[in-house]
């Protein structure tokens, strides 16, 4: 076995410290940067990353630096590499059958009438991947040399890096079947057809200079993919039998982050001929000893790759000692997951309070934690005593700092009764709301945000830098709101929004106005493709010092006779899209946020707002991967939403929005939210969710999305009409709403206006078909 390094990470942020990749990719899409220029930016970014990781202590020549670069998504990269793009993109292949970069982007964003691949969350994170479409017609063949070119690039620069591939079991388990698939068949049934392509790819990576390859198989920790533990373990055993049988390959490190391996999977990988196994020890204890570990290296994931807290290094050292008792040939220190889920570097955050900084660790600090613990593993704890003591002291300081616990907040939460989470029956509320709102059948609306133009971003930046005063900036925002209200009236929407020009992000905006949060300047984390967010840091007890959204909503409502929605982000989504304190149960923190939102809803009602939308697009994201853990999560997450909304009057219509939610998985919980209207992502999946909604008997208002806002495509009137007709055929038209999949923040105005006009035209046409008297 080729020696494995004493410490490593499973991946690193790939968008650049200043989002260099985002800017280059979007410049390429706009035509301002050709493909050669984009490739040059990407190569420079990869070189910068390798150099930085070596500077932080990972070895240039020992495979401790992973190759995890992607132009868009790691699952899409494998789909391109094994030739598994759908037939609708076949015309974009090169003459030799390979998949060029243009075809990869087309699969991600759509092109012409070819809809893009669906997108959904990556396990229980806020990262979203492209869903492969696998059926009997899928012909696997090695179709891209991008992985091998990156390895060769590193070798030419003097590095021996470790390429990272989404493993064959996870790739197929995350896929969806195509229409051509026979009933009862699933993508994982194609495993034996796929494995020879992986064998060929491994050989090519070996020839390019790779000594180790990382095969990511996080599906083996999940019970949420439609496969049993035993099915996945059997597939993993079969996969590793085939992949390890060839002598013409690198050593194989099987990485299973995002939770504890199932017992069958743990035994299957231990019994295989794979040379290494990386396990997540931050979301599960040290597993029991099993046969087969004596010829393997265990990469112990004791540094959490998904949060930003400095952590307990002394406790991590204790876990490493326990892993040493498993009988493996060697133990290495690692991260629990890729570090793509955290920002680059705390040194880029001059605005954060120094005391808070002492409690935190971003990607670069986590790499340093890995190298510190690796030194302790090799030389003994005394060699790192200073670092262990400093981390312990930071933990103690965090516990005692002002604001971490607020007596008034805790007293209010502690006095809650079940009545605080209950409204009157839906039928009673619906009648009261119909009388007040007087909306037509199939009412049209949007999810909340309108495009964030360059002018809006410039004005916000100038206000932040102090180049314009507060009154000037507020005047600009009022003008923008008035323009958006007038535009919606011209388009003919029935329920309006103010467009959210004052908000940089749907979570950060609330974090900036609630106590207990901090926000970053450069803490960007990739959400999907070229899109990145700056998760806020929830470090203390949460409260609302003053109304947040009320002035903007009230002003917008004063401009129109049509109802204007108040727009709030729900407690679960605020938690899911923030880095949340880890010193108390999530449910307690969610209730604190919910109480702040409850007060905001009360103030919106007093300001004359009749509809309030409380978005929960991340409800599904935090759902635990193991079924035994899911009921407790659903209990507190539903409870926090109801706590936020149950104080509303019967006449106030409460909306919520969910996207990438796999509706059927949590349908009972969504019904239990008891929102008056729920809008859901449905356009990208071409309405596949509608039968699930119908079969569930969902009785509240429902708005299946008819416009995929994650693609620049403008849906035709006929396309929207067909989705609406499908919904009308299966759902109660009296409770059916018409809306896009999600907010419009990331889109341009030309495509947005055209798409919304098509939506209104389609809604009016279908409304006429079903009759105005419904």
Description:
α1 runs antiparallel to α2, α5 (146-156) packs parallel to α7 and α25 crosses α26 (749-770). It is built from 26 helices and 21 strands. The strands form six sheets. A seven-stranded parallel beta sheet has the order 1-5-7-8-9-10-11. The radius of gyration is 26 Å and the shape is globular. The N and C termini lie far apart (72 Å). It is α/β, with parallel strands linked by helices and 774 residues long. Helices cover 41% and strands 12% of the residues.
Total number of helices: 26
Q: Work out the number of β strands.
A: 21
Order of strands, main sheet, comes to: 1-5-7-8-9-10-11
Structural class: alpha/beta
> What kind of sheet is the major sheet?
7 strands, parallel
Q: Which oligomeric form is depicted?
A: single chain
| Helix amount | 40-55%
Q: What proportion strand?
A: 5-15%
Average pLDDT value? 95
- The Rg value, from CA coordinates, equals 26 Å
Which geometry do the CA atoms define? globular
The low-confidence parts are none
Give the end-to-end Cα distance, rounded to a whole number of Å.
72 Å
């Amino acid at each position: 076995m080729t020696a494995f390094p004493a410490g490593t990470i499973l991946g690193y942020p790939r968008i650049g410290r200043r989002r260099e990749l985002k800017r280059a990719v979007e410049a390429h899409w706009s035509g301002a940067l050709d493909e050669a220029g984009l490739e040059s930016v990407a190569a420079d970014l990869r070189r910068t990353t390798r150099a930085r990781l070596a500077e932080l202590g990972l070895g240039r020549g020992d495979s401790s630096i992973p190759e995890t670069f992607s132009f868009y998504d790691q699952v899409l990269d494998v789909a391109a590499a094994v030739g598994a793009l759908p037939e609708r993109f076949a015309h974009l292949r090169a003459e030799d059958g390979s998949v060029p970069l243009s075809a990869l982007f087309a699969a991600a964003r759509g092109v012409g009438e070819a809809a893009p691949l669906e997108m959904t969350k990556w396990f229980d994170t806020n990262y979203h991947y492209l869903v492969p479409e696998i059926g009997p017609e899928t012909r696997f063949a090695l179709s891209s040399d991008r992985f091998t070119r990156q390895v060769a690039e590193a070798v030419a620069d003097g590095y021996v890096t470790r390429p990272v591939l989404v493993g064959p079991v996870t790739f197929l388990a995350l896929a969806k079947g195509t229409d051509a698939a026979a009933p009862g068949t699933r993508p994982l049934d194609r495993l034996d057809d796929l494995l020879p392509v992986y064998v060929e790819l491994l050989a090519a990576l070996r020839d390019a200079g790779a000594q180790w390859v990382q095969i990511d198989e996080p599906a083996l920790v999940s019970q949420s993919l439609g496969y049993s533990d035993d099915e996945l373990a059997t597939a993993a055993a079969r996969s590793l039998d085939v992949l390890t049988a060839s002598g013409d390959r690198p050593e194989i490190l099987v990485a299973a982050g995002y939770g504890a391996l199932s017992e069958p999977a743990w035994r299957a990988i231990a019994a295989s001929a794979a040379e290494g196994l990386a396990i997540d020890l931050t979301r599960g204890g040290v597993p029991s000893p099993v046969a087969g570990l004596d010829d393997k290296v265990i990469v112990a994931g004791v540094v959490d790759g998904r949060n930003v807290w400095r952590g307990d290094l002394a406790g991590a050292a204790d876990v490493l000692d326990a892993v040493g008792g498993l009988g493996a040939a060697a133990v290495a220190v690692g991260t629990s997951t890729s570090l793509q889920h955290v920002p680059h570097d705390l040194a880029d955050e001059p605005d954060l309070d120094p005391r808070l900084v002492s409690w935190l660790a971003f990607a670069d600090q986590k790499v340093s934690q890995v190298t510190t613990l690796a030194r302790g593993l090799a030389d003994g704890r005394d060699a790192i005593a200073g670092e262990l003591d400093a981390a312990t002291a930071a933990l103690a300081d965090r516990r005692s700092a002002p604001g971490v616990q607020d007596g008034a907040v805790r007293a209010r939460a502690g006095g809650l009764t079940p009545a605080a989470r209950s409204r009157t029956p839906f039928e009673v509320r619906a009648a009261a709301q119909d009388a007040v709102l007087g909306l037509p059948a199939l009412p049209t609306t949007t999810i909340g945000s309108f495009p964030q133009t360059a002018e809006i971003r410039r004005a916000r930046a100038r206000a932040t830098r102090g180049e314009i005063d507060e009154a000037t900036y507020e005047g600009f925002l009022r003008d923008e709101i008035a323009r958006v209200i007038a535009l919606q009236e011209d388009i003919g929407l029935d329920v309006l929004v103010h467009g959210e020009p004052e908000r940089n992000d749907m979570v950060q905006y609330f974090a900036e106005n609630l106590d207990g949060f901090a926000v970053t300047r450069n803490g960007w984390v990739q959400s999907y493709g070229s899109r990145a967010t700056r998760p806020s840091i929830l470090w203390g007890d949460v409260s609302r010092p003053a109304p947040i959204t009320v002035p903007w909503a009230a002003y917008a409502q004063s401009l129109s006779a049509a109802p204007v929605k108040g727009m709030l982000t729900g407690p679960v989504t605020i938690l899911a899209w923030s880095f949340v304190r880890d010193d108390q149960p999530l449910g307690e923190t969610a209730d604190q946020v919910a109480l702040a939102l409850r007060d905001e809803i009360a103030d919106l009602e007093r300001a004359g707002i009749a509809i309030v939308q409380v978005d929960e697009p991340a409800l599904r994201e935090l759902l635990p991967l193991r079924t035994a853990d899911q009921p407790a999560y659903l209990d507190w997450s539903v409870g926090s939403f109801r706590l936020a909304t149950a104080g509303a009057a019967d006449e106030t219509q409460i909306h919520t929005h969910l996207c990438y939610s796999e509706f059927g998985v949590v349908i009972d919980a969504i019904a239990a939210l008891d929102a008056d209207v729920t809008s859901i992502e449905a356009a990208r999946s071409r309405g596949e969710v509608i039968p699930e909604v119908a079969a569930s008997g969902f009785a509240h208002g429902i708005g299946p999305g008819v416009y995929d806002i994650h693609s620049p495509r403008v849906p035709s009137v006929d396309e929207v009409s067909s989705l609406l007709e499908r919904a009308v055929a299966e759902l109660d038209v009296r409770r059916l709403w018409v809306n896009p999949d999600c907010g419009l923040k990331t889109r341009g105005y030309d495509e947005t206006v055209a798409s919304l006009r098509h939506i209104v035209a389609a809604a009016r046409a279908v409304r006429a078909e079903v009759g105005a008297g419904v």
